[in-house]
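Throughout this review, each integer encodes one residue's backbone shape. One record appears below.

===
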Amino acid sequence: MKRTAIPRPVIDDPNALEVATVWSAGGRLLVSLNLSVSVRQPDGELDKLGSWGFLLGDMVHHVANALSQETGYPRDFVLQELKQKIVRELEDPSHTVTGDVSGNRHDTGA
């Protein structure tokens, strides 16, 4: 299994938390999520939906930065293309996403 690099600040932070892992295997994407991520609002309520919206938006910006560096396309162009493709996929999914919420954790030892 080929893995992505773990950023140094994660290694150095004993409180670091893995929130999402995405694999490509068998011709499809497989996702593992840690749903404990949430931001406390000023009224004290936890906002999971807002937290995941922020996380996914931030991830898109990271992808845009990386693709811009790799392809040489301007970052704003890459970000606009990603936005269009994300909206299209959300409005008209190319396939059915399945899965379940499970408390099982399978460590690979890696």
Observations:
- The longest strand covers residues 20-25.
- Strands lie at 20-25, 28-33, 39-40, 46-47.
